[in-house]
TrEMBL record:
<dbReference type="Pfam" id="PF00069">
    <property type="entry name" value="Pkinase"/>
</dbReference>
<keyword id="KW-0547">Nucleotide-binding</keyword>
<dbReference type="InterPro" id="IPR000719">
    <property type="entry name" value="Prot_kinase_dom"/>
</dbReference>
<dbReference type="InterPro" id="IPR051334">
    <property type="entry name" value="SRPK"/>
</dbReference>
<feature type="binding site">
    <location>
        <position position="74"/>
    </location>
    <ligand>
        <name>ATP</name>
    </ligand>
</feature>
<dbReference type="InterPro" id="IPR017441">
    <property type="entry name" value="Protein_kinase_ATP_BS"/>
</dbReference>
<feature type="domain" description="Protein kinase">
    <location>
        <begin position="45"/>
        <end position="403"/>
    </location>
</feature>
<keyword id="KW-0067">ATP-binding</keyword>
<dbReference type="GO" id="GO:0005524">
    <property type="term" value="F:ATP binding"/>
</dbReference>
<dbReference type="InterPro" id="IPR011009">
    <property type="entry name" value="Kinase-like_dom_sf"/>
</dbReference>
<keyword id="KW-0418">Kinase</keyword>
<dbReference type="GO" id="GO:0004674">
    <property type="term" value="F:protein serine/threonine kinase activity"/>
</dbReference>
<keyword id="KW-0723">Serine/threonine-protein kinase</keyword>
<dbReference type="GO" id="GO:0005634">
    <property type="term" value="C:nucleus"/>
</dbReference>
<protein>
    <recommendedName>
        <fullName>non-specific serine/threonine protein kinase</fullName>
        <ecNumber>2.7.11.1</ecNumber>
    </recommendedName>
</protein>
<dbReference type="GO" id="GO:0000245">
    <property type="term" value="P:spliceosomal complex assembly"/>
</dbReference>
<keyword id="KW-0808">Transferase</keyword>
Length: 418
């Protein structure tokens, strides 16, 4: 789950801060359910550790004592409808092996309200955790990108937009032998649960809304460079922002994709409905992060307007109507649309690929060959187009040269090595 989803600004902090844990202030009416290691949910799921958290849920590793296997349990906040289960059920038929299918659904009643929960197969890690300051091997890069594109193609074919494609929402599957571990063996291999006692800032006893201990999420993953091509089987997660554009309107102003991956129409056409093309932009920025060391656009220490200036530097001029409505453009460009002197100008796609992908890969002896690099750059040019109606469909992407010659064959080969 994305830690970026935590929003605590402006609230009164009642509890002493626990680094790496969710916002403890959200343990109140309408918020998180207080789960503890050792709890048994629904009479069968024994909580053995925490896997993660987001703004609207916590995720736990549990042993299903009925079927003797491990599951991940997503426990929503009491004020969350967790509508993603409806979408996941719709996607379950005919189904796709890169889309999570709910195994069981139930409700918990607790001191903070009624919480919707569902179980799913646990994952090893998300790609952001695995790739932090690291590079995936070339063959893993291809397989991950091909698998992600196929997953998006399936979602679109079922009439849905994912709406939140980024590395934290792309998981790597656990090996099949994980279920063979007893809880004791699990703790021997990965360590006992890391817990920290929760205390009130004013020293008062804890209310029943709050667990006695905060649990720091367990990491089951591998580093990017250690992933094998046989590990490169993705699970696309977190369908909380998914929608069916043919049945409902999701306007640009309601887009919650992280800013660096957010399609520009969300900013410049806030009242216009989003569609499948919004996923194409986010898919492009995510594939770029899979293949390289640095993102093609970055919001690190950058405002929303600085991000737009980056996009113009890399891709060229905005559509004229967008340009005229962008009041802040004079901070970054002169009257002729040229970058103002003295500011850093982001490189175009070709130069960015050389500086932010190839440069780091060559240092490790794993750069892309010239033909493959040309195919990747061509695909990025086609996907990262400002006007959403001019972007390719995901079917077009699957028929692109890079997908056909490199990514999809590598993915097929990876499935045969399992």
């Amino acid at each position: 789950m994305s830690h970026d989803e935590e929003h605590t600004g402006g609230c009164h902090f009642e509890y002493n801060w626990v680094d790496g844990a969710e916002s403890l202030e959200k343990y109140g009416p309408g918020g998180y359910h207080p789960v503890m290691i050792g709890d048994v949910l629904r009479g069968r799921y024994r909580i053995v550790d925490k896997l993660g958290f987001g703004g609207y849920s916590t995720v736990w590793l549990a042993l299903d004592t009925l079927l003797h296997r491990y599951v991940a349990i997503k426990v929503s906040t009491a004020d969350s409808p967790l509508r993603e289960t409806n979408i996941l059920r719709a996607l379950a038929s005919p189904g796709h092996d890169s889309i999570t299918t709910p195994l069981d659904e139930f409700e918990l009643n607790g001191p903070n309200g009624k919480h919707l929960c569902y179980t799913m197969i646990p994952a090893r890690c998300n790609l952001r955790e695995a790739s932090f300051s690291r590079l995936f091997p070339l063959e893993v890069t291809r397989a991950l990108s091909g698998g992600l594109a196929l997953a998006i193609a399936y979602i679109h074919s079922r009439g849905y937009v994912h709406g939140d494609i980024h590395l934290r929402n792309i998981l790597v599957k656990l090996s099949s032998d994980f279920d063979h571990l007893s809880v004791e063996q699990l703790y021997e291999e990965y360590g006992e649960p890391e817990t920290v006692s929760i205390t009130e800032r004013d020293g008062k006893p804890l209310p029943p809304n709050v667990p006695l201990k905060a649990v720091i999420p367990l990491y089951l993953g591998k580093d990017a460079e250690d992933l094998l091509v046989s590990d490169a089987h993705v699970l696309l997660s977190d369908f909380g922002e998914a929608f069916a554009p043919d049945l409902e309107i999701r306007r640009g102003k309601d887009c919650h994709t992280p800013l660096a991956m957010r399609p520009p129409e969300a900013r410049f056409e806030p009242e216009a409905p989003l569609s499948y093309s919004a996923d194409i932009w986010s898919l492009a920025t995510t594939i770029w992060e899979i293949i390289g060391m640095q993102p093609i656009f970055s919001t690190e220490f950058a405002s929303a307007d600085e991000l737009i200036s980056q996009q113009v530097d890399v891709l060229g001029p905005l559509p004229s109507s967008w340009w005229m409505h962008w009041r802040e453009r004079s901070q970054f460009f002169d009257n002729n649309g040229h970058p103002k002197e003295g500011r850093y100008v982001w490189p175009g796609i070709e130069s960015a690929f050389e500086e932010r992908v190839q440069k780091y890969r060559r240092k490790r002896g794993c750069g892309f060959g010239r033909e493959e690099a040309t195919a990747i750059i061509d695909l990025m040019h086609r996907m990262l187009v400002f006007r959403p109606e001019e972007r390719p469909t995901v079917k077009d992407i699957l028929h692109s040269e890079w997908m056909v010659k490199w990514a999809l064959p590598q993915l097929k080969g990876s499935s045969q090595t399992k």
